[in-house]
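Hi all, long-time lurker, first post. I run a small reading group and we've been trying to get comfortable going from sequence to structure in the token notation. Rather than ask abstract questions, I figured I'd post a concrete chain and ask someone more experienced to write out its structure so we can walk through it together at our next meeting. Sequence below, copied exactly:
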Amino acid sequence: MKIINKYIYKELIAPFFFGVAAFTGIFVGTNLIFDLTEYHTKWGVDTLTLIQLFFLSLPEIIVLTFPMAALLGTIMAFNRLSGDSEITAMRSGGISIFTLILPALIMGLVTSAFTIGITEFVVPGANYRVEQIIYEFKHGEKRPETQYDLFLTPLDNESGRPDYILYAHKFDSDNGTMSDVVVQSFDNGSPQSVLKADSAVWLENGWNFKNGIIYFLDKENRSPALMFTEYRLEEAIHTPVEVSKLGKRIDDMNIRELKEYIDLQQQQGKEAYEERVKWHQRFAIPMASFIFALLAAPLGIQPQRSGGSATGFGISIIIIFIYYSLMTVGDALGSQGTIPPWFGAWLQNIVIFLLGTYMIYRTART
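-- Answer (accepted) --
Happy to help. Here is the structure in token form:
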């Protein structure tokens, strides 16, 4: 590694961690602390539980602050180098603008990869645990893994018509059971039979229905054809694990689970625009660290006469505001299907990337 690269890395690290601390402090001070205070005053939550909630809430905050810190750290580092005329000296010595900004881009890319890892492996579990704790002290019991009024309507991939329609008044994912179940079966889109059962339980060979009756349907009438105490349909009905995912919050899912959830939604004939936007955002938001570094480096290299840190912080706030405004617009349009979901999720990154590329090009020519 070139000495110049090591030098720039050292300049980037300190302001980056300053940015992490500063922006994390802002999020904690303006939101999290108020929530924790309310939990203590209104619900009497003890100090140890509040501390647990505090640290469990940090991963989701860090995912947002890392890109901001990359932006602020890069601007501050290059502002310092520019203000002390070190950038001028380096360029006079034949060092290209691309060599100067390369450490910032690499550091931004590494930060993005690390943030994706936190998003995938830490945030969903932490969010789920936070919800469990809050439910427990509000209701005095563990949150039940139960869904009510469950509907499943998977479509045939070739015909686009229903495979079956299932309704269950209650579904318990803990023990794999359903109660008050109705299943209407189809053949090439035409209804063939209706099954009504008191309950259903998941066994190794599939869903087994208990105490019910089956009606076979034809053009003329509907008549009971079979009463049973135990029966198994031929239809490949979703497993309890798959069904439970349909009732899980998106924030509690990792990237793989969210993709499976989208597939299940699309099997129900839904476009899942909003969910697809959220899936792409799992990559787009962490990649903001690299995108911000791409824009911040040429901005920081611009000659600075005074107020470098204050100016850098002010510029960072403006860019962050523009970024999240674009993200809000893209999210809304993508979730409605007005624009493709992937474009809605990546809109802000595309705009900042193009602007950063232009800034680098212009800086290199000066």
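A couple of things your group might point at:
The CA atoms of residues 160 and 269 lie 8 Å apart.
The longest strand covers residues 190-203.
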